[in-house]
């Protein structure tokens, strides 16, 4: 397998070509206005990239996860922000892997054609944080529907999505043997009555929200998989999510390195290009090396996933290494640009903010480290 930065040239060239239509001025404008990059997401959808993971029988292109990661990498590598669209790639998995044939037939072709968007996933709650088993949102079966009450936070892209994957408790924590049991996953129409959405203004241009759920009614046919097994389905989808995010960080990392190299060759101070100074060269070289190393783990994780082999450790390591590497590359890039790094027109400060998110979301650094410590190294469970 070609693990270089230019493998899958057909996908790269096509996605990069599309991304070139959305230049730095476009991303600066949406960032400044805190607007959703609607035109970009539309173009990506129309070109078929957003349905990469949907099997051909449902109108998608049936690509592998490895290929899907190349798409996301090209978006960030081109200077764009993939946070507006990555949800559709990985939220899809919950439906793909655990949905009934009827649900897949009903939704997947319409998602593939772009008629419906499945961009949102409501898992995190203000009171539970990373301890998802403590969620308070409850779904109670009443006749042929579930009635849901509770609250979510950081539910991203909800205002630009037709469907949301929602996790709720269907059996109280006190009544289950394993705390991860008793939660269920639903496919929710985001225009339903009972959902109040309050946007959260945040550090990046990321459309994300608080959601107040008040007697939301969900038809029973929108339960995905078995009642009570929802947390397992969510966990199942997380490996794909981590690997896709790793690839986005790799794209960011290459963007920072390329930007640093070209700026440091051009910028002349003390009568010589700043890139001639080893104090400027070394952080860029180090960032490049770390991105290359993280990229190997990204491909390892993606190929294990595509071969349907266990990949939890590799997916977590890929996400962590790539998020750290892109953050360090961002730091080197900002430093290389000196004062101009802070000027919005160079895009560096925007990308710096955007890539920082991935050390916290969708899973924070400490949780990855504790997963490895416990599940890979066999150290005692700490919480
Ligand atoms: C922009 C953005 C978009 C998001 N989008 C979504 C979304 O679409 N859907 C969704 O469901 N969620 C979303 N999230 C939520 C995200 O997944 C969480 O913020 C993230 O998992 C961290 O959880 P938390 O914020 O509750 O932090 P907390 O769980 O409160 O943790 C706070 C800090 O304490 C650390 N910590 C906690 N417990 C331990 C421990 N035992 N040992 C060591 N350290 C610990 C954590 O690592 C973290 O650094 C989003 C978040 C952001 C910021």
Strand content: 5-15%
Largest sheet: 4 strands, mixed
Helix % is: 40-55%
Tell me the span between the first and last alpha carbons: 39 Å
Outline type: globular
**Major beta sheet, strand line-up:** 1-4-5-8
Which structural category fits the helices and strands?
Answer: alpha+beta
Helix-strand string: HHHHHHEEEEEEEEHEEHHHH
> Any ligands, ions or cofactors bound here, and which?
flavin-adenine dinucleotide
Q: What's the Cα radius of gyration?
A: 21 Å
Mean pLDDT across residues: 96
- Low-confidence runs (pLDDT<50, min 5 residues)? none
Number of strands: 10
In DSSP terms (H or I, runs of 4 or more residues), the helix count works out at: 11
Descriptive notes:
With 383 residues, the protein is of the alpha+beta class. The chain is 48% helix and 15% strand. The chain has eleven helices and ten strands. It has helices at residues 9-20, 24-33, 38-46, 65-77, 86-98, 101-113, 230-266, 278-306, 312-337, 348-356, 365-376; strands at residues 120-122, 138-142, 145-156, 163-169, 183-189, 195-199, 208-219, 223-224, 268-269, 272-273. The strands form three sheets. A four-stranded mixed beta sheet has the order 1-4-5-8. It has a four-stranded antiparallel beta sheet with strand order 2-3-7-6, with no helix packed on it. It has a two-stranded antiparallel sheet with strand order 9-10. Helix 5 runs antiparallel to helix 7 (230-266), helix 8 (278-306) runs antiparallel to helix 9 and helix 9 (312-337) runs antiparallel to helix 10 (348-356). The longest helix is centred in the middle third of the chain and has 37 residues, at 230-266. The protein is globular, with a radius of gyration of 21 Å. The mean pLDDT is 96. The chain binds flavin-adenine dinucleotide. The site of flavin-adenine dinucleotide has 22 residues, from strand 1, strand 3 and helix 11.
């Amino acid at each position: 397998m070609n693990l270089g930065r230019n493998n899958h040239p057909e996908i790269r060239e096509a996605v990069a070509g599309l991304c070139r239509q959305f230049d730095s001025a476009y991303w600066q404008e949406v960032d400044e206005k805190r607007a959703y990059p609607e035109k970009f997401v539309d173009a990506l959808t129309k070109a078929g990239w957003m349905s990469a993971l949907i099997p051909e029988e449902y109108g998608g292109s049936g690509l592998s996860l490895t290929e899907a990661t190349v798409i996301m990498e090209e978006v960030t590598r081109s200077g764009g922000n993939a946070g507006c669209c990555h949800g559709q790639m990985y939220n899809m998995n919950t439906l793909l892997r655990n949905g009934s044939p009827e649900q897949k037939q009903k939704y997947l072709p319409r998602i593939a054609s772009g008629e419906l968007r499945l961009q949102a996933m409501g898992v995190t709650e203000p009171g539970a944080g990373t301890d998802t088993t403590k969620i308070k949102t409850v779904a109670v079966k009443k006749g042929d529907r579930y009635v849901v009450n509770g609250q979510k936070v950081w539910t991203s892209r909800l205002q630009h999505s037709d469907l949301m994957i929602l996790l709720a408790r269907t059996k109280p924590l006190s009544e289950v043997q394993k705390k991860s049991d008793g939660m269920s996953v639903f496919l929710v129409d985001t225009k339903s009555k009972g959902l109040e959405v309050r946007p959260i203004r945040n550090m990046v241009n990321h459309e994300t929200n608080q959601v107040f759920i008040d007697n939301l009614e969900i038809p029973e046919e929108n339960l995905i998989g078995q009642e009570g097994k929802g947390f397992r389905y969510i966990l199942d989808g997380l490996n794909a999510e981590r690997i896709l995010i790793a690839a986005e960080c790799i794209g960011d990392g290459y963007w920072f390195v390329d930007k640093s190299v070209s700026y440091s060759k051009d910028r002349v101070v003390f009568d010589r290009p700043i890139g001639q100074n080893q104090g400027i060269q070394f952080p860029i070289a180090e960032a490049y090396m770390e991105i290359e190393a993280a990229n190997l783990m990204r491909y390892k994780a993606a190929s294990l996933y595509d071969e349907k082999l266990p990949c939890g450790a590799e997916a977590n390591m890929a996400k962590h290494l790539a998020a750290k590497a892109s953050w360090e590359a961002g730091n080197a890039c900002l430093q290389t640009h000196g004062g101009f790094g802070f000027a919005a027109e160079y895009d560096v400060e925007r990308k710096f903010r955007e890539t920082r998110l991935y050390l916290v979301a969708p899973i924070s650094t400490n949780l990855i480290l504790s997963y490895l410590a416990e599940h890979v190294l066999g150290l005692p469970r700490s919480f």
